[in-house]
Design a protein that fits this description.
By secondary structure, the protein is an alpha+beta fold. 24% of the residues lie in helices and 39% in strands. The chain has a five-stranded antiparallel sheet. The longest helix has 13 residues, at 11-23.
């Protein structure tokens, strides 16, 4: 969504929508902006775009990795 569209929505309703959409992704494999792959294991209800991921034996907390984001949902 472009910024003009987002500003026209109630922020509380928009956050609830994003939170519910992200919660359906728990267990899904994703690709990060750094090219790494992981599986979403938890969504932060206060920051739904910053998930907790498992990559092999490592756990990545996107709240702490500010430069990384989910780029693509694989499945």
């Amino acid at each position: 969504m472009n910024r003009d569209m987002v500003s026209k929505f109630n922020p509380e309703i928009l956050m609830e929508l994003v939170s519910r959409l992200m919660s359906t992704l728990v267990g899904k494999e994703v690709m990060l902006t750094n090219g790494r792959f992981g599986t979403i294991i938890m969504i932060d209800p206060y920051n739904p775009l910053k998930a907790l991921l498992k990559t092999g034996t490592e756990i990545i907390d996107l709240r702490m990795e500010k430069e990384w984001q989910i780029e693509r949902i694989i499945g």
